[in-house]
């Protein structure tokens, strides 16, 4: 893959947001739209749905097998399978572990922070309550992860299995 192909792919890599709060998701989307970013956003509202999305099971069985997020924004406190378990499963799976995961949560518990970094989280952001601060953080998150940072682009073998 040429550097131009990598740059074009980077622009369109989907983002998976795992967030159960409609208000938090809407605030995230408002900030996202202001930045005019072209990456598509997929939302899952609980950990079980996120795992179905990533493994193409459940209601995502018929989704394109190569649909893989370039970045995962993960809330910790989710109904069903919580974000900590989702993070653990992602980082233990050889086909998913290279996907950067940013925890975006209200939890400032030092134990959560430690556990997430031990499990391999790439960043841990505590959601501010102030809307202006939230928009600033979303701007920084997008700028860093989608403009400054080079995200891994999945390479597939003939069986549509990631080789990363």
From TrEMBL:
Q: Which UniProt keywords apply?
A: Phosphoprotein
Report domain Response regulatory positions. 14-142
* One GO biological process term: phosphorelay signal transduction system
| Record PTM 4-aspartylphosphate, positions in chain | 75
| Keyword set includes Phosphoprotein | yes
Source domain of life is Bacteria
Which spans are transmembrane here? none
Name the UniProt record assigns to this protein: Two-component system response regulator
């Amino acid at each position: 893959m040429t550097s131009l192909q990598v740059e074009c792919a980077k622009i369109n890599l989907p983002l998976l947001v795992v967030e159960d709060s409609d208000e938090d998701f809407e605030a995230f989307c408002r900030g996202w739209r202001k930045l005019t970013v072209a990456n598509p956003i997929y939302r899952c509202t609980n950990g079980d749905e996120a795992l179905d999305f990533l493994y193409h099971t459940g209601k995502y069985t018929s989704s394109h097998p190569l649909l893989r997020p370039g970045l995962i924004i993960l809330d910790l406190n989710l109904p069903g399978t919580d974000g900590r378990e989702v993070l653990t499963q992602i980082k233990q799976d050889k086909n998913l572990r290279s996907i950067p995961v940013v925890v975006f949560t209200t939890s400032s518990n030092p134990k959560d922070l430690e556990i997430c970094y031990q499990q391999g989280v790439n960043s841990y952001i505590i959601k501010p309550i102030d809307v202006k601060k939230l928009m600033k953080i979303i701007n920084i998150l997008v700028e860093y992860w989608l403009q400054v940072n080079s995200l891994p682009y999945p390479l597939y073998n003939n069986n549509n299995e990631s080789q990363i």
